[in-house]
TrEMBL record:
Residues 4-113 form the SET domain. Gene3D superfamilies: SET domain. It holds the Pfam family SET. CDD domains: SET_SpSet7-like. This is SET domain-containing protein-lysine N-methyltransferase. One of its GO terms (molecular function) is histone H3K37 methyltransferase activity. It comes from Limnovirga soli. InterPro entries: SET7_MeTrfase, SET_dom, SET_dom_sf. It comes from the Bacteria.
Length: 124
């Protein structure tokens, strides 16, 4: 499920990103996307390609990988993100939820460290 007011558009020097065409209230689920789960071995192969920047660590041990379908892999990183993501390992889903109100035209972002305000430096 992707809310109809989301769109992918250019995001300056960051390539593309996810934007909204209308205001969104805080605590709104904007997307629920299935993932393709990669075994540890498959993840190691994918990490040698440009897809490495689009996969998520997956599983309790974080040794597997997951490629999210829908727009999920297009959300850009912000340390003070306006959205958060939740991984559902049992159902192989990632859910994106707003953590504050987002204005029409604003880019939606997630913190790649899994918590909206985690200041830990990311790997890239």
């Amino acid at each position: 499920m992707i809310q109809p007011f989301l769109t992918v558009a250019p995001s300056g020097n960051r390539g593309r990103g996810v934007f909204t065409t209308e205001d969104i209230a805080a605590n709104t689920i904007v997307e629920m996307a299935p993932v393709l789960v990669l075994s540890k071995k498959e993840r190691q192969v994918v990490e040698q390609t440009k897809l490495n920047r689009y996969i998520f660590e997956w599983g309790v041990s974080k040794t597997k990988g997951a490629l999210a379908l829908g727009f999920v892999s297009m959300y850009n990183h912000e340390y003070n993100a306006n959205c958060e993501y939740e991984m559902d390992y049992a159902h192989e889903l990632i859910t994106i939820r707003t953590v504050r109100q987002i204005k029409k035209g604003e880019e939606l972002s997630i913190n790649y460290n899994a918590h909206p305000d985690d200041p830990t430096e990311v790997w890239f």
